[in-house]
Amino acid sequence: MYRIKLLIGILVAAFSVVYLLFGIVGWVNESMKAADLMTCLILASLHLGIGSWLLFTSLREYRQEHRRVEDVVRHLIESSGGRVTIVDVAKYAGISEDDAREHLERRSKHDVVIIMQNTAGSDVFFFGQQYWNN
Known about the structure:
Layout: H1 2-29, H2 34-79, E1 83-85, H3 86-93, H4 97-108, E2 113-117, E3 123-127
C-alpha cells in the first residue's frame, strides 16, 4: 500500500508546482485577477500539503513493513538454523514473494549468506551462525 501512496503523493505534489507556475505566469503577465491568483496559490498549497502528507505516511509504512519483515527473517534464521526460504518469508511476513526475494537479496549483501536452490527450484538462503542474533 505504501507504494500506491508514494505514487499518488508524487503526482499530487507535482500538481502543486503546476498550479504555482500558473499563478506566477499570470501574475508576471498581469493577465490574472487577484481572485484567480489566490485560487492558484490556495490550490498549490493544498496539493503540496496533501502530497507531503501522503509521502510521509508512505515512508512510515515502508519503515514499518521493513521492520516487520526483518523481524520475521531474524526469527526464521534463529528457528531454522540459518535456513530461510523466500516462500517462508512471504508467508509469515504477509508480503509477495518478489518483495521477500528483494529483501533477502538486499540482506545477503550485508551478511554472510550462501544461496542455493532446493529440489523444487526455489532459492534457499543459508545465513551464517554468527548472524543468528543480528
